[in-house]
Amino acid sequence: MKDILEELDQRRAEAKLGGGQRRIDAQHARGKLTARERIELLLDEGSFEEFDMFVRHRSTDFGIEADRPYGDGVVTGWGTINGRMVYVFSQDFTVFGGSLSETHAQKICKIMDMAMQNGAPVIGINDSGGARIQEGVASLAGYADVFQRNVMASGVIPQISLIMGPCAGGAVYSPAMTDFIFMVRDTSYMFVTGPDVVKTVTNEVVTAEQLGGASTHTRKSSVADGAFDNDVEMMTEMRRLFDFLPLSNRDKAPTRPFFDDPLRIEESLDTLIPDNPNQPYDMKELILKVADEGDFYEIQRDFAGNIITGFIRIEGQTVGVVANQPMVLAGVLDIDSSRKAARFVRFCDAFNIPILTLVDVPGFLPGTTQEYGGVIKHGAKLLFAYGEATVPKVTVITRKAYGGAYDVMSSKHLRGDFNYAWPTAEIAVMGAKGAVEILYRSELGDPEKIAARTRDYEDRFANPFVAAEKGFIDEVIQPRSTRRRVARALASLRGKQLTNPWKKHDNIPL
Ligand code: HXC
Q: Which domains does the chain show, CATH number per domain?
C-alpha cells in the first residue's frame, strides 16, 4: 500500500516538472513564470484543484510517441479568487511550446463544460505556439472544439484571456472570442502568423513586438484590453478585475464592503466645467469622485481615449461606466470609440451590470477617413448596444450633447432610466457656430448680425432646460450632488425588469 501511495507522489512530481528543469529555467530566464506558478498567484492560496494531471497525448507521428509528458502542455482545474469560484487553464510552454494537441484541447473543453454547467467564469492563461504541428488536423479539430465552446459560453459566463507568451494561429482565435484579453509587455505576442511567414508572403520585415506585442494590440488594433509589466502584476490585476464581475449571467455582481458615504457631496464638481465651452477638462475626475473610494478599473485605457470605459462600484455594487473624454479629440464619437464602447455596453448588459453614462460629446467626427471607414455602421453599433440593453441605465450630461451623439449616449429615447443634466449642459442638434452658419448663410458677411444670431441660439439651446421641458431630461442636478443622485437612482433600479421581444438573436451591424 505504501508503495502505491509513494508512486502517486512520484507521478505527481514528474507531472509538475512539465517539459523538464532545463525548459523551466529557460522560461524563468525570459522573465516568465511557469504555468503552475501563474495559477498559484492567480488563485487563493491552496484553493487549486487540478483535473487531468496524468493525461498524455496519443499521437505517433514524427517520433513524438517517444515523448509523452504528463499533462500534455496544459494545467487545468478550478479554484477560488477571494472565495469565488473560477475555472482555469494554463498552458505550459515547456511542453512542446504549449502547443495544442487533441488531448490538450480535451482538457480545456472539460473545464469549459464544467464552468458552463456550474456557472463560473473561465480564465485562460495562454502561452502557446498554436496547433501542435505533429498532430495535423487532430489539433485543428481540437481548436475548433474550444472555439465552439467559447461561442456557447459568450454571454453566459465571463471569459478572460491572459496572453503570457508567444501566441500564434489558433492560440489567438480562442482569446479573440472571449470577453477580455490582457497581455504582458515585452514577453507576450499575438499574431495569426509570425514575422517569418509575414516576410515570405508580403515581403514585410517586422519584429514580433511590432507585429503583435502588447503596445500594438492595446494602442493600434484594440485586440487587447490592457497590458501589464510582468506576470506578477498581471495576476494581481486579474484578481482585482474578477471582483467586479458576476460568476455568470444568472448571477449578480458581488457586493463588496464599502466605506464611502453614498450621499457624499463633492463641492469641487461645481467648478469642473470651464467657463469657455471649448476648453477641455478631465472626465476621469468625475468618474473617480462618483465611485466608491475612487476605485476605477479601466478597460482599453490606451485605445480611443475619446471615450472611457471601465468598472466602478457604487454602494459596493459594480457599475459599468461609459464616458466621453473632452481631453481627447474633444470627446467626439468616431469609429474606434463607438466600437470600444459598444462592446463594453454589451458586456455589461449580458452580465446584469448597470451602466452609468457620462456625456460631453460634440457629435460624430466628420470627414472622409471616417466615412470611408464605415463610421455609419460602427457608430450604429453603440446606438444598437444602448438600445438593446435592459440593465439599469443612468445618464448624466455634463456639457455638450449634440446631434446624433445625444441620442446615442444612453438618451431617454433609448430607454434611459434616469437622465440627469448639469446646469452647464447644452443639448442641441449642433453647436451655435455651425447652426448659425447654416440657418443664416445670407448674413455671413455681417459679423454683428451673426454674433447676435449666435447669442440667440445659445440662449435658446445652450442649456438643459428645453430638453427638461419636454421630459427628455428627468432632472437638472447640481454637479456636487452627482454621486448621491446616481447612487439613489441605481438603488431604485435594483428590481428593474425589462425584456426585449423574443428573437433568435439580433443582427447588430458588425
Ligand atoms: C509543436 C512546437 C510548436 C508547435 C513550438 N513548439 N511551437 N511544437 N507544435 N506549434 C516547440 C518547439 O519545437 C520547441 O521544442 C519548443 O516548442 C519551444 O519553441 P521555440 O521555437 O524554441 O521557442 P521560441 O523561439 O520562443 O518561439 C516560440 C514560437 C515558435 C514563436 C511560438 O516556436 C513558433 O513560431 N512556433 C510555430 C507557430 C505556428 O506557426 N503554429 C501553428 C499555427 S497554425 P523544444 O523541444 O526545442 O523545446 C494554427 C492553426 C489553428 O494554430 C488555426 C485555427 C483558426
A: 2-242 (3.90.226.10), 267-425+463-492 (3.90.226.10), 431-462 (no CATH)
| Nearest ligand 1 atom, CA 208 | 31
Name the percent of the chain lying above pLDDT 70.
Answer: 100
Tell me the per-residue pLDDT of 372-407, one tens digit each, with 9 for 90 and over: 999 999 999 999 999 999 999 999 999 999 999 999
Ligand 1: centre distance to CA 3 (Å): 39
Look up 403 and say whether it is catalytic: no
pTM for this predicted structure: 0.95
Q: Per the residue annotation, which of 305, 316, 404, 434 is the catalytic one?
A: 404
C-beta 132 within 6 A of ligand 1: yes
Per-residue pLDDT, 98: 95
Q: How far apart are alpha carbons 105 and 147 in whole angstroms?
A: 10
Considering only CA atoms, which of 97, 92, 94 is closest in space to residue 108?
A: 92
Ligand 1 mean position to 149 CA, how many Å?
Answer: 24
Q: DSSP string covering 288-318, please? A: HHHSGGG--EEESTTS-TTEEEEEEEETTEE
* Cell numbers found for residue 112: 469549459
CA separation for the pair 510, 493 (Å, rounded)? 31
Nearest-atom index, ligand 1, CA of 97: 17
Which residue's C-alpha cell is 471569459?
A: 159
Where b means 16+ CB within 10 Å and e means fewer, 29-55 reads eeebbbbbbbbbbbbeeebbebebbeb
| DSSP secondary structure letter of residue 33 | -
